[in-house]
Specification:
The structure is a homotetramer of 225-residue chains. In chain A, 62% of the residues lie in helices and 0% in strands. Chain A is mainly α and 225 residues long. Chain B binds a DNA duplex (31 and 31 nucleotides) through helix 3 and helix 4.
Chain lengths: 225, 225, 225, 225
DNA sequence: TGTTAATCGAGACGGTACGTCATGTCTTCTA
DNA sequence: TAGAAGACATGACGTACCGTCTCGATTAACA
């Protein structure tokens, strides 16, 4: 999180997880004085939070419950994370990985399609979907979480999609003049909306319809079908 | 809420609010023995919840705080509402009124446009927007709230919009085959998405772009511009 | 306690302990609005605190432990007592009862002797002694407890003894001019001192010696032996 | 402390405090390998503990606070002292010095008087009094501290006084038969009692009264005034 | 005109989670 | 070997809010 009060675990690189080679490539201070941070703690906490959220919803993922399930001290958790929602967000980021990028050599429409399908898969997935729903709910009550969600989740993903759209505009496949952000919204918001309101998820056919509608709707009026 | 444990105030009709004529048209039980329910209480509670949510976010609208601000006993609140979020939802419904219907004699596109603008106005409004955001967040943790939001907020409004879209299909203005629900999603979800993620709201131009894109995208391919 | 932040349980009179007749003689407000206070709670808490202090010392009598042993909610305890030491003090006062008064018709010296023996018995007793030691220790860290100990324990007992001494002065049994408070100190402080430093308690012979020494030391110089 | 788990600093003699001559007379292990213990650390820790106790009471003198104020690592403190109270006791002993001995050539009564005045001065002093009060309070919760207080504070001082009293008995100034310990108690306990209960301290006049009373009370009955 | 049945208010109580503080142990690096 | 730096577990703290409960006070319709 950007607005977090404490140094975030994500910034930590020198974790003695037995694979120092991997982390050593990053900026590891060789002369770290005190006891090194335990990798077990971070992993266990994040995993516990994810499991609790999935099984019992946001209410279940309290700091207390996470601490108990992860067999980690509550104090330690409070040292590294500002709230349980921050842990859940971290677990979400962990399990999702980097923003989607389309397979090389794909057309703009194919790239859009790939992106949208991948996003829908994440939001629909029973592993990641509930985490995101919880995180967004927590953001409603906590400005720091709002910032974190935007900075670490939403904006990077929107940016990737917006780049594709802009490319399509440059290629002349989409008529200029339409607000790129609006196109991104039209494509991206339905899956979120369905998740956050607990509506039935978009299936493949619906996704196709959505893509076709938006793509067709913003093509150059003089373009051939 | 469907799954609520207690009779919901929304079901109540006989409130001695001084205007018995209006409520009397509804199904008032004539032979209610004891002391009638106070309209002052309901109004004060709902108003207090809305004010607290607006000023301090969901965290501020606790039952205790609502009781204190409304000068109503906590016991009374628990008697009529299952949770503070339920109160907020009620306040939201109060301040929004009935689902939007377009001015008579308007075309399908005009009706869609009117509906979308009205919805965006509600979600953007500083009075109602925060209430909805709070309610949706609460729904993530409470299945009863999820049901309530769907039944009392989302489905009625979707239905109104879907009816217009279906009419457009019937009129041949929109090509058949496209999933009506998808079109509704494409139109409706962006404002929600922007609200729930605390993004900047859609302005008029963006709304026009959105409408144009979707309308253009789902018109019959052979239709004239 | 005088400096207590909340109304003290000792002030409460209308406790529905099943014997309303007894308490009804005191100033019971008939129209107490809310749920009446449970007598079980007070008794259980005070007893638990005393037991824990006796068996495990001051460290054992935490609010948590008291709550668990008394089967009373921590919240309820915090509502009525400012600290665990305050509970222990209350238990001490309960088990000791009112300040000592000598049997009627006794001489001044007999009254002093009676008082001192009774005090030593209390401080030596395994039931009350540890409670007092704990309370005094807590007072070292908490000004409110200091005040409470003085107001509710020490001053009343000193006053009773000082009254006897002053009477002896009036009767001419003790020479005038000596500071009454000093005589009280000389008599009273040795048992306290032995308790607080965990020295072996004063036995009967030592008590006699002490009484004789002080009595003899402050008699009128011209008095006959 | 006898029952302490770690070697206590009080036992330590080889501190390189720049005055090796003084400490070298004591049992210094000559062949101590590795880095010698820092005198700066001991001094800073003890001083910090004393200052914190004086300014903020026993609550303020936590190990953490001492470490921070002394600019010494917590680990180091835990290595040498079993508890913060042990540090405070050490500071008390440091600042008080050896047990009092009367000026040479003084009579028994003068020696007693000198001793009592010196004791009262220590207990009344704002530098040492709070330390002792804190230490006694800690002893109530910690048997090791109880032992330490007795062995290092109370017993040596009582012994010195008892020796004077016994001498007075031998000189025939005090009647035989009275328990020496009781006389010591009668003299010594009032100042402690006043300190531990936070009563106003004994002034010079009160001290004179006390001395006179006890001295007069335990003189031989046939002795001349 | 009571009687009856409900609402409403006041407050006690049990319970859960919070976020913090202090303790004491352990691990690593540096002097 | 001493000391510094820091991670970690443990346990108690005092608070906030929740939801339930037990009363008394109030208010209407009904008998």
């Amino acid at each position: 999180m950007a607005a977090r009060r404490k140094s975030n675990i994500l910034d930590i690189v020198s974790i003695n997880d037995g694979t120092p080679g991997a982390t050593a490539t990053q900026t590891v201070q060789p002369g770290r004085r005190g006891r090194p941070r335990s990798a077990r703690v971070r992993a266990a906490v994040v995993r516990a939070a994810a499991q609790l959220t999935r099984s019992g919803g946001p209410t279940a993922a309290t700091v207390d419950a996470i601490a108990k399930r992860a067999a980690v001290s509550r104090t330690t958790i409070y040292k590294w994370w500002p709230s349980s929602a921050a842990i859940v967000l971290e677990g979400l980021l962990d399990s999702v990985g980097d923003p989607i990028n389309a397979p090389p050599g794909s057309s703009c429409k194919e790239a859009l399609e790939h992106h949208l399908r991948a996003l829908n898969a994440i939001l629909t997935d029973t592993t990641t979907g509930p985490l995101l729903r919880d995180v967004v709910a927590a953001a409603a009550a906590d400005p720091a979480m709002t910032r974190a969600v935007l900075d670490q989740w939403l904006h990077p993903r929107r940016a990737a999609l917006a780049a594709i759209v802009r490319q399509a505009v440059a290629h002349g496949e989409i008529r200029d003049g339409t607000d790129v952000e609006v196109i991104v919204d039209a494509l991206v918001s339905p899956p979120y909306y369905r998740l956050l309101f607990a509506l039935s998820p978009l299936d493949d056919a619906a996704l196709n319809d959505l893509l076709d509608t938006v793509w067709h709707g913003c093509r150059r009026s003089d373009a051939l079908p």
